[in-house]
Batch of 4 targets.
Target 1
Amino acid sequence: MEQGFVDTLISPEGKLEVLSKAEVLKLLDTGKGGLYKTFRQCALAVLNCGSTIDDGKELLDRYQSFDINILQRERGIKLEIKGAPAIAFVDGKMIKGIHEHLFAVLRDIVFVSNEVTDNPKFDLSRTDGITDAVFHILRNANVLRPQTNPNLVVCWGGHSINRAEYNYTKEVGYQLGLRALDICTGCGPGAMKGPMKGATIGHAKQRFINGRYLGITEPGIIAAESPNPIVNDLVIMPDIEKRLEAFVRTGHGIIVFPGGAGTAEEILYILGILLHPENAEIPFPLIFTGPASSRDYFAQINEFIGLTLGEEAQKRYKIIVDDPESVAREMQEGIKQVREYRKARSDAYYFNWALRIDEEFQRPFAPTHENMRNLKLHKNQPVHVLAAHLRRAFSGVVAGNVKADGIRAIEEHGHFEIHGDAAIMEPMDRLLASFVAQSRMKLPGKAYVPCYRVVL
């Protein structure tokens, strides 16, 4: 099934029916300044949903004949698709959720290019300019709901997890759904799919018909984490940093399930923000959880955080093992505190403007060999700044593992070298080694070849 190819012609359903000639030309421009490469890559990843590929380069190589064109008709646009993965179709017809995701990709790529990147109104060299851009991308995607009480739970975790961990994420999602809490994830498989799947059952039992399953991704990672069709709101942010900011600005609390380097990156991102002195009083529920078999995993994560960021960082989260009901109740109570805090200050429920996010967490990090070597991984700096550099280190490992450009860089120049103080490098090396031993770097059945070398 996965190896099959399908040609088709599809129309949008009520969204993005009209594009200007200039927008179409830009999307179909294969040159350096065009958007076609990004558009094709994201469209192929969406159509590859349910596949066992988590390697951006492998996906592009397998479907070299895949092509997607925009046809302008008097009544609007159509997408002409050639060589699409058969997995996206049932009895020859495209799955509706995937159909919607294709036009979400088109919407976001057009908007970001025309209204953000090429718009002098957004000063992307300033922290407030970047936050404003994140807000506008989310608003254009219609995912900000002003009349809704806080109830959006962000779920982070690995795309490569074992069956016990996956089932646990579904059970937590189910308990959240029973409490009418909505789910936001990175929208891919594993710990990103499980909570949504569980929540759909909880919502159905409570006759909660407006359940939201928000997926936030970005072009570099989408091939490794193809959006699952449960997602009913998909947003493509322009880079990983804006994706992470979108999570913490829109979510009212975060649950972290077991994962690999990408999950460690997310943990370091949120801890770095919460450790900023200006964010000390802002309530933000953060829970690490997994089944009984994951107890050692979280013990090691907790130890790593203690050794690198210290006890203050450890106070910003709770670890709850093998108790989905407690996780859901704790999150529900934490979100009540968020609501009370924002209500008392007349803050928006739908976007966390009050949270201070420094430029260190916003500036896009290109994981080149030089940039990875030059990371400042030492303790002679504010702890939230150290967290930002540690986040980049793990981001580089993710790029070398699954992103097409990162994989090519490793093939061409060899391993990323990560330098720093021994007090940081040794626990980092142990943590990464445990991810490899537990098969958290790649999907099951694939041998993992490290893309990095920790230099002690």
Target 2
Amino acid sequence: MIQFILAQATTGDDSAWMSQLLLFGGIILVFYFFMIRPQQKKQKDQKKFIAEIKKGDAVVTIGGLHGKVYQVEEDKIILEIDKGTKMIFEKSAVSLEQSKKLQEK
């Protein structure tokens, strides 16, 4: 009986490993197109937005602080929060998504 079961197990179909390979390849493609690629595009847009910040732009920081850009330096910006109130932030602290929402209003 055991020899019969082992004989069936060894006479497997050669196309089984091919179908498993195609399944895993399909899963990898789905992960790439639905997870990795959109995240790379989002990072690229964020870097472009930060590079194009100029004086007078209305922005929102990651912490939720709203203000207008008063001065732009290499890696820092000075935001005017209220008349006469200025704060220094890293450029990376500016939120692309929240700033776009603010500009649409």
Target 3
Amino acid sequence: MGMNKNTIFGWASFVLFLIGTAVILLGVLKYIDYAIGFSVVGIGFFAISWAFNALKGRV
């Protein structure tokens, strides 16, 4: 069974969500001096993840 467009968008959304979470946690736990920048980048990953999730079933 191959992956269709909805499955690919779902996996991409999940992977981007995990990367965003990892970036935010990395900034908060390891690089405290740069936590604001890491958080902004992580929120950007969350936004892209949300957009990919919203595209499921529409493309």
Target 4
Amino acid sequence: MSNEIGAATALPTVNAYVYPRGGLDVLSRDEVARLKDASTGGMHDLLRRCALAVLTSGSASDDPRAAQELYPDFDIQVLQQDRGIRIELANAPAMAFVDGQIIRGVAELLFAVVRDLAYTAIELGPEYATDLESSAGITNAVFGLLRNARLLQPGDPNMVVCWGGHSINRVEYDYTKLVGYELGLRGMDICTGCGPGAMKGPMKGANVAHAKQRQYPARYIGITEPGIIAAESPNPIVNQLVIMPDIEKRLESFVRLGHGIIVFPGGVGTAEEILYLLGLLLQEENRDIPFPFILTGPTASAPYFEQIDQFIRLTLGDEAASRYEIIVADPEQVARRMSAGIRKVKEYRVGHKDSFYFNWSLSIPLDLQQPFVPTHEAMAALDLHHGRRPHELAADLRRAFSGIVAGNVKEDGLRRVEEFGPFRINGDRDIMQSLDALLRAFVEQRRMKIAGEYKPCYEVVA
């Protein structure tokens, strides 16, 4: 790698050539040519934004446009050569380098970006659109992306998915580390959405526990998607990153890859994830599938979970609430319950001859797999009324929260709200009142944004 200090920009920058390690280091000339074509076509701006996100890994901002404003002259090119590919970085953030050399973990994440965006462009391009019109076709696409990222590894079930907010307070963050530590002591690996806050804490705690238990290699998987990576750049502990094409494939990756899920306090994104999983577990086909699902936080977060629980019971009923367990201020108990739950998962998979590394048995209906584009018309058309089957109402509630996430931190959503005003969400009066109270609590507890005053991107209409 060669480099030099770039021209003066808002912050110090570096020009560099970077060569791949793993995944992209053994390629044919045809594969290199296709990779280069994919990266220089219409997806170049997407590649640039995602690459900038990993080069600013550890950033405290959740504004997707902040990094682009700080590094307006940054660019990335994928170059072809006989021994594979080479990435050229122009005016890259100096924070990604030490003494002129790119930090190894940052380099790995950078090539994960190139790998996944190129795979999506090449293997899931327009010519394969018909393959993505069926539930089985979408699941096969998710499988292909995870396998290409080398995330599907044989071995006993031990992957715990941790969901929670990027904007949480210090007490909650420290609690996520304690839970991660207890999980790590029991030999469990961690998968999160890859960002800061409740996505970083469990990895940090597990990292210490894995070192104590001499568990190598330990896995800290981050699953993200292009619309959100710029707002939630990967935390430094992530050692396996995959970028799924959209939020629905990201959510499916979590439940196919994970053997159990722990939810920490969070905001609308966390509520979206909870409703997605409940929508699956309430399907008749999935009722007998063991899937440990625990909501947990410190004592001060108990009211948060009480409000989430009340909202779920009002909208989806007590059966939905029976699919999860709430444990307050007891990291050891969380880890013990998760460990016991994963043992049941193993027994079930052995009995049903299902793989340990990919949950094929879980049924995911097509309407939960198809991407939801949160336009103002789509948000207003959501059917948030009583009388629907619980899993169908859960699906539309999930879409409502997904739209708010887009309006908060995704570029397209921010642009729509700036142009057309807040999204309007309507439905039965009691559902809207409960939803409004929940969202107001998120705002008051500063769960919507890391910094600055929050201006709602939504309007709840009874």
